[in-house]
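Write out the 3D structure for:
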Amino acid sequence: MDVKRAFNIPGGNVLRCKGWRQEALLRLLENVLAVGEDPDNLVVYAALGRAARDWPSHDAIVRALQELEEDQTLIVQSGKPIGVLRTHSMAPIVIMANCNMVGQWARAENFYQLERDNLICWGGLTAGDWQYIGSQGVIQGTYEIFSRIAERHFGNDLRGRFILTAGMGGMGGAQPLAGRMAGAAILTVEINPERIDKRIKAGFLERRADTLDEALALIRQAQERREPLSVGLLGNAADIYPEILARGIVPDIVTDQTSAHDLVYGYIPAGHTLEAVAELRRTDIPGLMNASRTSIVRHVTAMLGFKDQGAVVFDNGNLIRTHAKQGGVERAFEIPVFTEAFLRPLFARAIGPFRWIALSNDPDDIRKIDDFLLARFADNAIVSNWIRLARKEVPFEGLPARIAWLGHGERTELALEVNRMVREGILSAPVAFTRDHLDAGAMAHPNIMTENMRDGSDAIADWPLLNAMINCSSSADLVAIHSGGGGYSGYMTSAGVTVVADGTDAAEARLRLSMTNDTASGVLRYADAGYEEALDEVRKKGIARIDASAAGRPGRQ
């Protein structure tokens, strides 16, 4: 009989490992499971995003981290530890590769078979390399998108505006709070009542509606009062979106963050109960995939209808357009992806989702870092507005953590300051720095991060691979290379990095090298593609770029 596992949030200053670098990574592994969607099955988010391949692999990782010396490196293959090698004290403590299949084999069907054979697992993005900080990361990213839309389309003010979206899983659950923080009335459709209740309990969602009439009435009242409000509606988006459209109601902004990337373990097709889908997963995966794709066709067709009526409609990065196109929706890609539509000028300067986690489990450590940021970046609206809002509105999940959109040089400056604060005892324990994989130099995904690149380099995966190698060369503590699993199979490659600020001179050297070179690789990636913002960043920051391009190189006009 299996012993029921406890998923406790770590903290304090007592080490179970031989140093803080190893202890930090162990705590991060524990943390992602403590805040995960289904920790009993090692799932952190996104239906299949696992922290380890199976429990024996997890336990072996824990033992290895506890026994690792400073001059050793643990090697992890798709969530399974395979060996410890002698390296040197400035080498990564952990290197990992998750879910990477050879090009022609990188398809969902092959992934599911390999997973059933226990030869592979998908790490999501920040799940498999133990960097997930709960919903805050997604809240901030979604808030940033809504803020950019407000600037571009609504006079920098979303009060009185209606946002329609769907999905309240591990990623989508951030949307109600992000919309409310941006000042809008936001309606989020969700098929699973437990997820709605969970988000209300966490403080991410204010109201639950069980009928469309009730939901629309609440939204209309909030619009009239120009007050922010978040409403969760129990239902299926593939039913609700067409009904709203049929009523002649046009939201100001429409998107979706259901788990549409995975037609089997994520998306719930219209007309199916949760129980029926669970049975189909066991008995008829091809039939379930077809049903999901058919439902997505209705779902995306309605989104296009809203777009035709003047709504700002965008893809939030869940492959819903891809599946709709495969199902026959020829116009699916008329809906732009959020990165290209709203965030690319920021990414071109390597401004993106940077994170830090208080290993002490003391919220006061994050407060002190917030104070530094508010003073140092008082004139940076993206940073300072977010920090003030987050302190007020965003509850910590697991280890206290913060995210902010910082760029080249800024991340290094913060990391070095935090390392000083740890050294001088201002902070009660070391702090881990990481970032989302959706970062300038760290991802190739032609349907999300790198869609419609100026030079046509959308599908070139060299960049995240180079980023990982650069971070290994720059003495990061953990470096990961991930590719997609489930419905994401064959669609993406990304790199992750974690560096620990433990107050030592060695940590200062690692932080200075890795934080600087990580963002430099992002600037270089966009400069190579010809983005003016990146070329400007190269000039301003003195990045040693080599321009080997021939005159008149073809590219997208």
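The chain has three domains: 22-94, 136-336, 343-541.
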